[in-house]
User: Fold this.
Amino acid sequence: MSVIWLDSIDSTNSEALRRLPELSGGTVLAAREQTAGRGQRGNTWFSAPGENLTFSIVLKDLPLKASEAVRLNYMASVAVASYLESHGVEAAIKWPNDIYVNGKKICGMLIENVVGAHGELKASVVGIGINVNQKVFPQLANATSLSLCTGKTYEPEAELGKFLTLFEGLQVQDAGLFASYSARLFRCGVPAGYHDLLTDREYRGVIKGVEADGRLHIKEEGGGDHYYRFKEVSYIL
Ligand code: BTN
Assistant:
């Protein structure tokens, strides 16, 4: 993979999408500073300049149909969890692709797919923000970083190299990927609160797992089974 470091950019995902025609698959755009980092659901991703990893991996010629794009979630999530584990930090994957340590968020992802006219997956931009050295998170009670977990300070460029080595070692079609993802599922089997966004109703239930198509399975206490797609449920933390 070839890494291009940018001193400052609005968002590595936005830049990767703008430059998509000219960028080869396997190119990684990494930014020391993002001025308008983008998160899930239109949220902003704030990362203190120079302290963390904010980068986007451009993937082309993927051996996947658009309907199988969920496998990119599995691959990126397992890669981040493995990276943290290589530093002795136990990580959990909060469906669909947040990474949590000790109940706090350490990494978020924004995966943006380019789908062709015939439903084929033409390209994907896998945007990943990992909190590495940042120790203070203004207005974010539920965030942590690698440094807060280990007490050490890291060199972001070297850390990106370590992460990419792990990412490259995974195969998006590997049958074991889904099992690796499921084994690390945050709150699996633990009774907790959920907000069904389809019906605007809160209830207690237990995560039973993730279906092969990527839907989250929650069994409601004293109720039925729910199967959610992205943005149809939120966790009460
Ligand atoms: C989330 O948890 O809401 C997703 C956060 C994704 C942040 C990363 S940082 C690198 C890439 N560029 C962006 O603008 N967003 C992603």
